[in-house]
Design brief:
Layout: H1 3-31, E1 36-37, H2 40-60, H3 71-90, E2 102-103, H4 104-132, H5 135-140, H6 142-161, H7 165-186
Parallel strand pairs: 1-2
Helix pairs in contact: 1-2, 1-3, 2-3, 2-7, 3-4, 4-6, 6-7
Length: 191
Amino acid sequence: MSPFEYLSVLISIVLALGMTRVLAGVGEMLQASSHRQIYWVHVLWIVNLFLYLVVAWWIFYRWRNQQPWTFFLFVFVLISPTILYLASVLLFPREGDVDLTVKYKTHYYANHRAFFILFALFTPVDIVDSLLKGVPHFLGLGPQYFISSILYTAGLVTAAITRNERYHQFYAIFFLVQTIVISFAIFHTLV
């Protein structure tokens, strides 16, 4: 077993925990639909976060040729999945509250600051992550990566600051479109 294969197990587990939390949250929404007041912006952020978890898992493979692995590099690489996992926890009420009435709009705005601040941390960590793979790799991501990083950071920080519902409605859609476009433009192949 290579060092990458060994270390990727824990990274995969953390990402899978985030995916599991998102899927379990959706399952609880469906299971107790009579007790749940769905908010479409919240639903879009469920989709956004799940897509981001998938993309993070997809691009982690780009570390496969890293030699040597150090403990500090491994801990750094573990930050991104941890951020996404914590964001997935914030997106839903506590597990097991199936019989309680949940207004997802209320839950969303009660947790939006922490959720978006946490999510905004992903971008600078990703930039450092890309730089650690080498300057040629970083530059090879092209101008769309740099522009996208600026848009992600500005949009997420703004979403953390404001409670303006129109902004949150617009940004949930914009984030989804941006993530899909960037995923196909930059990350369409595994290598």
